[in-house]
Target: Nidogen 1
Amino acid sequence: MGQQGQGWLFYATLLLGWAVSVHGLTRAEFFPFGKTTGDHVLEQGNDLSQQLALDKPVLFYDGKFDNIFINTNGFVAMAQPSAESTYLGKMPAGFGMIAALHGDLDTGDGVGKVYYRQDASPATLRQAAEQINRAFPEDDEVEPEHAVVVTWVDVASRQHHDHSRGDGLEKQRNSFQLVIASAETTSYAILLYPRKGMQFASTAVGGSSQAMQAGFSKGLVKYLVFSTRQGPYYRITTERETSVRALAEETNSGKRGVWVYEIGTSPYFTSVAPGEVTDLPPDTGLESRVSEEATSKRYPGGGQQVTYSPYEPEEEVYRKEQPHQGPHHGGQFTVHTVQYQPQVVVVDDGDINVDVFSYNSETCANNRNKCSTFADCKDYASGYCCHCRPGYYGNGIQCVSEGKPQRMNGKVNGRVYVGNSPSPVEFNSNDLHSYVVANDGRAYVAISTIPARLGPSLQPLSALGGVIGWAFALEQPGYKNGFSIIGGEFTCQAEVTFLPAQEKLTIKQVFSGIDEHDHLVVSTTLEGRVPEVLRGSTVQIEPYSEIYQYSSNLITSSSTRDYTVSLDDGSAETRTYQWRQTITFQSCPNDEAARAVLPTQMLSVDQVFVMYDSNNELIRYAMSNKIGDVNGGQQKEENSCFTGRHGCDTNAVCRPEQGTQFTCQCAAGFTGDGRSCYDIDECREIPLACGEHSVCNNQPGTFRCECNDGYQFASDGHTCIGVDRPVDHCAAGSHDCDITERAHCSYSGGSSYICSCLPGFQGHGRVCQDIDECQSARCHQKAVCYNTQGSFTCQCRPGYYGDGFYCSSERTKSQCETHRDRLLGSTEYGPQPVPGQYVPTCDSQGAYEASQCHGSIGHCWCVDRNGLEIPGTRTGPGRGRPLCIEQGPTVRPAVGPTPRPDVYPLPPGTHLLFAQSGRIEFVPLEGYNMKKTEAKTVLHLPEKVIIGVAYDCVEKMVYWTDITSPSISKANLQGGGAIPVIRSDLESPEGIAIDHLGRTLFWTDSMKDRIEVASLDGTKRRVLIDTNLVNPRAIIVDPVNGNMYWADWNRDAPKIETSAMDGTNRRVLVKDDLGLPNGLTYDPQSSQLCWADAGTHMIECMNPVQGDRRKAMGAIQYPFGITSHGKNIYYTDWRRDAVIMVDRQAGTETDVFLPQKQTRLYGITTAYAQCPSGKNYCAVNNGGCTHLCLATPRGRSCLCPNNALGVSCVESEGGQVLRWRERGAGIEVEREGGRY
Model:
């Protein structure tokens, strides 16, 4: 499906990452092991190693190894391991290591064992080839020639062995397997982690508990002559236990719990390569994960995340039987997986408050469009009713496809007291997301940002998802679930009474129908008191039944529910609460036959699972739901369609037939055999699916028509009719503002515009008059003021010296004049130069002239404002003076200040651009203040996650990074669609910056861990920095001074770094007292570099040259992006879903803008109507470079792209030629040295 991987798959990521599915790896799926296979057994104990001489070498990184060492502690080494005290808890290790699951392990109790062997049998090599080729589907097929199989079985953590609990409880044990499969020029590591074999995720190291590690380390390598340093390494897991548990739940090979890596190649090796299939088959629960805690970019879903870390159960919750192989089913079926790896995922919620439909007494003729697209309208004597068509179910107003999974989202608000606490826990607009596998009744619910004070005590309330389970429960013969009867618009009011203390909680849930994304929208409110459940406790809820009683527009139910709270000390207690709820809805009163619903039905709920994730403040519920007979009657041989054990695709409906026979039929909008269903792209297969002046957007199981720009839907909801097209009078030149030398026209949307006078002029914008600044005594009393159009100049009177704003009778020599006079010396005849010596020339203001010449040798060159020669600018005798950029005087200019010296003048039309999930919005600025009422969306990109934004003030283009594609794109703010810039060799592009002078763009990639540059059209691409980066995100450039700054939010060692814009002279600016430095901004007016830190909850600033770090604002919540303009800082905040304005001088928050859509905000930038002043050497004729021109503090560098094809390319720093590349006829030549 066109957007299937991006549109609905994130729901599975959010909700089903912890759901147990049919394809969890079991120990039976290991490569064969044990004594019957010829395995050796490692001596039992702790930290024991055994050398294994190999028949064929293993390739690891760039080396070949004929011997390896098997170790108790979950790894294979390339050399004899040192004592465990030197490597436990230290990844990477100092020696070559393949860490299958490395920790302080023990087999000394006689239960755990470590098996190992070499194997070249056809069966083992064939099994290895299947795993490798499935993981790398785009590569040539691999045929291994040799394998090493190492299996750790029932190994325990050593602290469990040394410190027995003494309570009779069994130890937790892990089982996992490593297979090293080698061909002639390549070796692979295959890692297998069964779900039920992963019972603990950490071991004791140095007195503290540390997460176990999986990954690869080359060990120490030689450095210089007499020293060594850490070589390359690759981490699969992080310091978090969740990443260890995820090994059994995720994959990079297309099979859950199986991970494949290319670990060595010959004769050349670049890096460890992970498998490329991170998706799972459609019927496995869609369990790809996005974990905020996983900071490794190689681990699927690594990095600082935008959403929640999934939970991975240690025990299997659901077990699905083998699919029934009736006469209507095939045997094998193929699932085609699609690779996706989003780094940052966000749900774009629709508005919750929508009008609820109600019937009237009219006929279908005037109301047909009020029925669902998948419903028919039928007239009755008293009015009309809507009825879902075959293949769909609902109440006619809301219809969904049979068998199709359903998704819900919404907000949760609450005011809840916990235990005997006198103060409530309050929360607002917390995200709720739910996913229901409709063809077997499984429902999953997740609620975010629940404080730790409350989260554990909400675990018993699985009923928060109960009404969702009822709405889409698996139907028994003759019975209907809630959605089939009342659709998706209803209100549920429930009262919970906890026994015996009679605490009461009220839950109100308002379901507002299906939004434009085909998601059911729900709003939830909690009020009251709940008994306390201590932190760290777990809750188990027993299966229960609930009787639903139906009447006209009203449904009631009640039940008593038991749950068990297990405490950390091993004790447990059973508690009870009573549940009563009322559901109100609007039915169609005109069709008596359609209202004939059984007066009572029973909802049976089992396999209930609850969990509170304190690290991410996230609570999850899961349950299996069936609706049927109040007596619980079942057929002797129950059909699989009514048990959910049918094996149909999650996008299929199970059709019961005679006896136990059934068929699987793909839901409407999907095609396949029912066991495997694929989305139908209606937009491609039905050319006229949408009418004229519209565009067709494919969606899972359906499609949506949208009118083109300039058109809107007519009253029938289908036909697109023209609307008055807006005219940008500023761009068209049809405005009535004053001339451009005096005024500026700012387009404000629609056909509107604003005229404003430029600084130095006054008026209403249509007529602007010069301000005579000389009337207000701007100059020194010993100076003369000269008024000019839009400005003024000051000049000291004869006999006085200075810049006109300050004049003195004594003139102080400038740096250039002092330099000159010192070289000239003094004699009785006046200053005389030393023969043959260079003497600088100074201009009338005392500054160094931009070009200097040495008359004796005939050489000329450019200098900076301090008189230092700029490399690469020297010309020889007879070649004339070089073209030099004026550096500006070292004293204050003669042009007067603006009317308010404390305010930087703002070009008219300046505004803020910020990213909000799949859209870019803007807020106009008036002065420094946000014109919040005029904010609007500039660009809407559904199903995208936009992270970074940057603005090119020359071409009025906005650039952005998108992590779903992934890609970098741009669009003209004056109109036009998205234009792809870079779409290849990206994994997670985040920060982005523009050099408007050199016409280049810079970006960070937080999964490739590098910083790159390219021309603005995406060509001439080059990697600038790719070492010592872990989580690079924010990046900014200062093109006038040639500097680049970036932030790395690596949780272990966050830092802010800088370099020249060509990547040279790299150094760390800040490394102490940082947490999560997400955003960076640089103000050239004040030379202040500021950053927003979500870990320290502060905004700090410094002058990068002086290093004077100071706090600009404290006690902020969770900042992400940041930009500056004049005295203000503007930042986006994830907790507040807002743009916040801060006066950085006063250190106070001055304004807040809340977008209409309350979802997370990402990058933010300032879009100027006029470019900031300044120049660099790349601004003219590309600095004389053949390809990339990158500014540096002392000039510029000419660099070649990484792939300079078809033309000659010269690399130089200043005038020194570093490399000259020529490509032609398949030959590449590199030449060194020389000047040009």
